[in-house]
Amino acid sequence: MLGKRTLWQNCLLALALGVVLFFCLFPFIQILSTSLKHQFDWGNPSLIPIKLNLEAYQELLGLGEREEVPIPETVKRLLDNPLLTEEAKEKILSRYRSTKDVFPFPRFFLNTFLLSVTAAGLSLLLAVFGAYAFSRLRFKGRSVIRRSILFVYMVGGVLLMVPLYQMSVKVGLAGTVWGSLFSLVLIYIIQTLPVSLYMLGNYFRTIPFALEEAAATDGCSRIQALFLIILPLSVPMLITVFVYCFMIAWNEFLFAFVFLKQYHDFHTLPLALQSLFVSKNAIWDRIMAASMLTLSPVILCFVFIMRNLTRGLTEGGVKE
Amino acid sequence: MEISVEQRESRLGWGLIAPSIGVIGLLIIYPILYNVYLSFFDVKLTGANLFVGFANYERLLKDTAYYSSLFTTVLYLFGTVLGTTVVGLFVALLMNLHFPFRNVARTVILLPYFAPVISVVFGWQFIFDPVNGIYNHVVVEMLHLTATRHNLIGDPKTALLVVILFDIWKHFPISYLLIISKLQSINRDQYEAAAIDGCGPIGRFFHITLPEISFVLGTLVILRLMWNWNKFDEVFLLAPNVETLPIYTYYTAFAGIIDQGMAASISVINFLILSGLIIFYVKKVLKW
């Protein structure tokens, strides 16, 4: 009686599936398509480029040849003036250098990558010990702590924007590049730590306690048991949590915007893309190519951790 | 002095959790309190802050811009909460049916959720672009619904609709994921029994499915409320002219006439409302 569909119902199902998949995928296809189109082709609703344009990608990845902008005769004459200092000459010349590197993608990529890896690594390190403590050890105040962690992880970033910035100003961190980066790493750690604690804690609890008891009889201390028994068994979850934290840091915009806005060389990708979009160099193919390149590592991570992540998320560790 | 096994375990426990508590205390708990403190001051970017009592709050409650921002936030929350839940439910019911390549489809629809906001937001800008966008092409050239092309994102009124649609697109997958994991746990015998009793698919949905998943739906509604109450990046990046409360707070704190004391007092009010939601969530959903 159940599970048998008529032809009519099958058509309806196919239609509904088509609509859902189109809704999900269309923006991605649009981005890919526009990143490969020439300017004359942008207004064309067809998703297939009339003529393939790879320049945007080449330019972002620094693969294209550099075009030298010719220096006008009058300026050349000016440069021959012996009264001009070397410094002034350099200044004039730099104006005529290629403007191709307005968006040094590899540099922004590296900035974001280093920042995210550092924050995710530290967050994972703290979380391993913390999660072990409140999932495996009995101590007074344990349940209070577990609940408070759940509570704080619901407090979002926007609410902490002003006080965190003021704190950073007061201790003198916001005034320098490295201070700002340091603040940002700390902020990314606290944005991910509660989730990491929660996800890892839930996972540790699924590992049979008998294993640890056996280790204890063999003379292992609790710390040794953590490193020799629990962690090797948790590798898939450790990777999942690391990648999840990495992705949160990789995507973060607000705090990067507040702390790093003035330090152009240290922009993260979200920040760099936003300033590219509002700048005079905003060209659709370039923006879309940069979007695709920002998307790619996330899609890789996504494929890699898919299975564990969906489990971790449905078991209670969701965070935005 | 000998210490017992329990004491040793307790010490180790505290030792291991202490760094996490330290970081969370310093960078979450302390800032929340510091924020309350700041809200009573005229915060200067350089030099000492000036104590002003409740003046920030008074000015805020007289400010019409604040109320209009509150109203925008309410519309935004209504649209996104309803949208993500309904679409998530629909897709979960769909993906619970059997069809070829179901696993591929189930994975693919999670993509919007995992894609970085920054990498998709300009694609959406392009879709609604007045000159090149496909939206205007379809509405004006193909369907002839309006005579002229509209800049949907440029106008704050229609931009809110785009922002809501974007949020539904981006976040329905997580609703879907939580609903389908519950759907899969419903015993198939219940459906068989209902079918034998003469219940049609619609009756089965209302009598079996909906009661089983109502708890998950409630949880999703309150979680989405809490998350979107603080949503900054996707609104700001897609349409900076849609001033929901987080955007309004940002402008007050970091743009134009910088007034971080005022921004702090907005955050305090927002935090109180959020705490109310969290306590409700904890009491009703987690049932402590």
State the major sheet of chain B.
2 strands, antiparallel
Greatest interface and its participating residue counts: A-B, 89 and 95 residues
What is the number of helices of chain A? 14
Rg of chain A is: 26 Å
Order of helices and strands of chain B: HEEHHHHHHHHHHHH
- CATH topology type of chain B: MetI-like fold
The CATH class of the largest domain in chain A turns out to be: Mainly Alpha
Order of helices and strands of chain A, N to C?
HHHHHHHHHHHHHH
Q: Mean pLDDT of chain A, as a whole number?
A: 81
Q: Which CATH-level-2 architecture of the largest domain in chain A?
A: Orthogonal Bundle
In percent terms, what proportion of residues of chain B is strand? under 5%
- Which strand order does the major sheet of chain B show? 1-2
Largest sheet of chain A, in brief, is: none
- Stretches with pLDDT under 50, minimum 5 residues of chain A: none
Radius of gyration of chain B: 25 Å
Description:
The complex is a heterodimer of chains A (320) and B (288). Chain A is mostly helical. Chain A has 14 helices and no strands. In chain A, helix 1 packs across helix 14, helix 5 packs across helix 11 and helix 11 packs antiparallel against helix 14. The longest helix of chain A is centred in the middle third of the chain and has 32 residues. Chain A starts with 6 loop residues before the first helix and ends in a 6-residue tail after the last helix. The mean pLDDT of chain B is 88. Chain B is mainly alpha-helical and 288 residues long. The two termini of chain B are 39 Å apart. Chain B has a two-stranded antiparallel sheet with strand order 1-2. Chain B is built from 13 helices and two strands. Chain B has a single domain, classed as MetI-like (MetI-like fold).
